[in-house]
Structures
1.
Amino acid sequence: MAAGKGRGGRQRGRAASEAVSGQVDGGRAELAPDRERAGGWTLLIDGAPQSHVDLGDPGHLDFAYQRRIGHLIDLAAPARQPLNVVHLGGGAFTLARYTAAARPRSTQQVVEVDAALVAFVREHLPLDPQARIRVRTLDARAGLAKVPDGWADLVIADVFSGARTPAHLTSTEFLDDVRRALAPGGWYVANLADGPPLAHLRGQIATAAARFAHLALAADPVVWRGKRFGNAVLVAADRELPVAEFTRRVASDPHPGRVEHGRALTDFAGGAAPVADASAVASPQPPPSVFH
């Protein structure tokens, strides 16, 4: 889910003027053409933007949060080296398409609970049949449980039910299974959405810090200051992260962001407690103004 978007997109096939829609398990899905790029499409569910994809240029990432995750995909290993990637949340498969383009021969598993959404996206924005992308129509946590121990170089969580992250994907127990699935040195990456007073974001930082040795978080300055609802991208690992390069890339984006890590991130969390399954709640509902 994108609380805001940049610009983007280039598709072969469907005429740029044709929007398409259909009923999926999570609501009314729409693919809206990007008027500024002939191949760009935005996926919306009940009017809330979920992702943007460009079939002609899968290396183009339009939403700011997806660009930030793209930077982490680029930095997780030497350029072009294949990775094993688990995507929790499918959307329009934007990040799986990006990974396949940037790192050919990568093996990817996408877990998306909404089978009707998967069929809708496959019909209108088909995946490259040569890409090694397997899609499982399961709940994200159930799908994660099927990933072999130590298989994944990256686990990317971008799961929203409507515009909220489900509670069972916010806990230390969930992160225990992420750690089980990760290879030694693997990274956990999450798209988080929150607004003032940022209690959910602080809790997610504390939860990740309870399970991983190194964290970094990227967000717009206005989100950091608690002035606006928006997305933040968290990366967590048990090895040193390339924070300096990640910071440089995020600051150089069309919509520049700020990265915090170490003591500054601990201070930002402000003593928040890690979240357990027993106390977990879904992320906050964004205000309607976010999507207008």
Note: Residues 220 and 257 are 4 Å apart (CA to CA).
2.
Amino acid sequence: MSIRRRIDPAAGHEALVAWVQARRTGAAPAPRTTLATAVRFTLEELAARNEGNSVEVRIPPFGVTHCIAGPRHTRGTPPNVVEADPEAWLEVAVGETDFAAALAAGRMSASGTRADLTAVTPLFDAAELFPS
């Protein structure tokens, strides 16, 4: 079953590229709406590439998704949760920081035996973000 996208992939990609370019050029941070779109797009992409319901990924205040195949969670607090601030999540999503480094630095938290996103991140590399 494929996920239902709320963010147009072209608009999401554009927002993600704008966020990366702002960081690389040292320009002013991307506007909040751009940040929100980039986060929501990457969460949808994570879920589309890794369908399932065993891990909940939370990026407050912008979004949450379920991903990774395995036992489905149905009640109460999910047993496998990853949570991060929007900047840390996008850094991991585009490969500026790896998942383990973000955890070690305290910029992300992960609980549960399946809450390791090392194998599924980064979601995008430079070639995908900036095709020739």
Note: The chain is about 40% helix and 15% strand.
3.
Amino acid sequence: MHFAFMDDSARAAKDVPRRGLGPLHAYGAVIFPQNAVQPYREHLAQLRRDLKIPVGTEFKWSPDGGPLHKKWNDVHIARVRMLEDAAALGVRACVVVCAPELMSGWTEEQLKSEMLEYLYERVTYAFGEEQGVLIADQPGGGRGDETRWLSDALALDTDGTQYVKPENKQILLPIVTTRSDHVDHLQLADLVVAATTALIAGASAGDRYRDLIRAVLVKNSRNHVGGQGLKFIPSVVRNPRALMNLAHWVFGDDGYVIPGTGASLEPDLPWGNWLYSSGDGLGTPAPSPAGALPAAAEV
């Protein structure tokens, strides 16, 4: 039995140094074996004692109040401990990162639905032969936004996806939501998704957590995170705007395997038909493949 905990993260264009991306939005989940759920709660309780902060203090990537507000050394200690403890307990993670400006013609609602579907599939793959449940932090926005989100989540349970059929699904219930200040494991999801988004954005805030994030991301048989623990929108089927080369520049992937098939789509990364084929977009600007959208202004 597994328990997956889901959260989202976003970065405005001004906070995305990597050229050609624009704003980013991400969904992600951390996946706990059943026997790791209670020990992780105990680890976070000990972490609060060690940091001398009140019981129930919420760990957030960007604490905007409370005992950890602007105490960046303590925040860093907490981030490292949370990720190290998660890896030691066998927790794994999947993150879907979307660059909306590269998806011309798609509405925000369509993109969020696509992201949720991709994450649902990757959590299912990570469960393997076992079953589990998926618990999400309460969506932001108004009541209408939450209702639409829950409708999309319910559709996944009843209809499945192209690759996860209802009769074969391992996620046993519709996605349920709760508050992250009530469930410690959602706070780890916040950290993993925000740190991964920062790394894809090229923001220096994520650099010191690169190896820790890679340690928990789901990997395929060739030790690649791309396509398995890390999914991009635009995806590979929407060449030449696909972002898969960022799996190389950020996490060191040297190839890409199609999830669920074991088939190699292209043996070597970076690949010339995708964005960031000859640079990471942080140093010398990487040329865009033919047909790609113009690069966004540097920020």
Note: The chain is about 35% helix and 15% strand.
